[in-house]
Specification:
This protein has 158 residues and is mostly helical. Helices cover 60% and strands 8% of the residues. It has a two-stranded antiparallel ribbon. A two-stranded antiparallel ribbon has the order 3-4. Strand 1 and strand 2 form a beta hairpin. The longest helix has 31 residues.
């Protein structure tokens, strides 16, 4: 069971980078290098995102990819569905055959409830929210780093 596949993870990371550089075209090569995503794999993901009107592409020296939609309109549930299908905690399969106990399985009913909760949570989560969380984490990291540098400067003066 995987909640997120590599495809979905890479797509989210690419969109976060495009969202951070909103209004600018970014080359696939730059995204690939900065996000550590295999280049050819990324190109295929970007083509799929173009197909779903999530990103634009522009050829040429100043070309690349740019986010087409508002980051707050791109739901993680949508990306999961595009790149891997619905979140499934259990397929109720055994050796590629549907389980015979499926209709009476009390665990399956609980699994379906859990899947519904997970899907609702992913539907509320957007690229915009993740961008804001990332920016807040970066500000905190910078503040902590700056505080450590000040402390070090004070200790070398005494």
């Amino acid at each position: 069971m995987k909640v997120l596949t590599k495809k979905t993870d890479y797509a989210i990371r690419a969109l976060l980078m495009l969202g951070a550089k909103r209004g600018s075209f970014v080359s696939a090569k730059t995204i690939s290098l900065e996000q550590d995503i295999p280049y050819q794999f990324l190109r295929a993901l970007l083509q799929e995102m173009i197909r779903f009107d999530l990103v634009l592409s522009k050829e040429g020296a100043r070309g690349g990819f740019m986010m087409e939609k508002d980051p707050d309109e791109i739901r993680i549930a949508q990306l999961i569905e595009i790149f891997q299908g619905k979140v499934q905690v259990s397929e109720c399969m055994f050796r590629k055959q549907i389980c015979r106990n499926r209709a009476r399985c009390v665990l399956r009913h609980e699994i379906l409830r859990i899947e519904q909760v997970v899907n609702q949570e992913f539907d509320q989560l957007t690229i915009g929210k993740l961008l804001r969380d990332l920016e807040a984490a970066n500000r905190l990291e910078a503040a902590l780093s700056e505080g450590g540098e000040r402390k070090e400067q004070l200790s070398t003066r005494t």
